[in-house]
Specification:
The protein is mainly α and 176 residues long. It contains 5 helices and 2 strands; from the N terminus they run H-H-H-H-E-E-H.
Amino acid sequence: MKRHAAIVVGVVGLLAAPLVVRAQAPAPSVPDAIRQQYNGVKNNLLKAADKMPEDGYDFKPTPEQRTFGGWVAHVADAQTAGCSRALGAPKTPSASSKTTKADLVAALKDSFDTCDAAYAALTDANAGEPIQSYRGPTPRLAALAGNIEHDNECYGSMAVYLRLKGIVPPSSEPRH
């Protein structure tokens, strides 16, 4: 009986060990957690833009909807405007004037370059500083979190367009 109890205790200990190790890992800082979220949606958006073929950039499910290329331009313009304001050097977005896949993907990448700098500059010390956003003065952290929220909303629409064209969205691809 003692031997059976020792085995049970040993098995429970082995099963609980990963929980103890996981609990000991420090949580990321708030800026690091925001950067992780940003990088996730950034990767999905860039892959989605790449996966849609050139002729799919003019696709829209109904006449009232944006084209897929319109979504790419919208994300690029919103990011250029929002992230450049977070950096204190507002830029005028211009992706909406682009029409080819190559030009739109280039504009999207440029917007991510601007946002990369804005997220890299986020610290615990400046997270609460007010910056000018779409809705007026907003804490830097809230403005950057709002950008992630907007990007995820746009990606959700773009993922539907991909599926309607028979393409698996990046977030649904098998993980290796």
